Amino acid sequence: MTKPAKNGSELFKKLLRDKLTKNEMDDVFFYYKQIIGIIAGVICGIVGIKGILGFLFFLIFQFFLSVALYNKKIDENYYIDNFSIVTSNLSVAIPAFVRREIEFIFNEFNKNKNGLNGNQLLYLLKSIGIYLNNDESASLLEECKTNGNLNLNNFYALMQEFYYDENIGKMLLTALQAHTKEGSKTITFAKLKHLLMTLGTGVKLTEDEIDSFLNVEFNHVKNMEISFDEFIYK
Question: Where does the sequence pass through the membrane (predicted)?
């Protein structure tokens, strides 16, 4: 989505005073969801929710905050379904979340403030669920040996190769496969619910919160199995 015509301060002033139209709320979400992304990234960094589990936490976190704001401040003539609320301006929230999470991950491994060498970088990538093959690992080690330790900006550039839509889908698929039988292409509603309830160590979602999220996304398959493709690409 393009940047709203009204500036952020005008939008939020009206948000505090009045109910909004759908277009005005979409404009608010342009800024609001970037803030949500940053906050979610900070939470993930502080409590240790990494990689794909961090991304799942972000999706659920922005779901609840977006629906709460929309239902409270939208004019009654402009109600839309929860799925549309959640996906509105999601594309601007993801980069904000990813950048903040990447910064926390990097700083966690860069205790001496000298940047990361090749071996540290490979260990970091494995810790967030990114596994390189032998050729990729050798190439990365050689690059670090030639160019020196990676700083934060170098790390941002590297992580852009992993945090794009197709690769996020692959990471989600790997996470689902790790919790199902080998060769399975579906996951039960109950098992997916259990997986979401065990995200991280410092932030725990309640059963009611997980149920609300899943009922919006997959209410029609509550007593059936959810295909990996449906969960990842819905």
Answer: 35-65
pLDDT digits (tens, 9 = 90+) for 51-107: 667 777 888 888 888 877 877 777 666 556 666 666 676 777 777 777 777 788 888
In Å, the largest CA–CA distance within the chain is 61
Is pTM beyond 0.70 here?
A: no
Q: What angle do CA 103, 11, 15 make, to 5 degrees?
A: 100
CA distance 19 to 72: 8
What is the rounded distance in angstroms from the CA atom of residue 49 to the CA atom of residue 46?
8
Multiple choice CATH, 166-233, 1.10.238.10, 2.70.98.60, 3.40.50.10950, 2.60.40.1180: 1.10.238.10
So where are the chain's domains?
Answer: 8-80, 105-164, 166-233
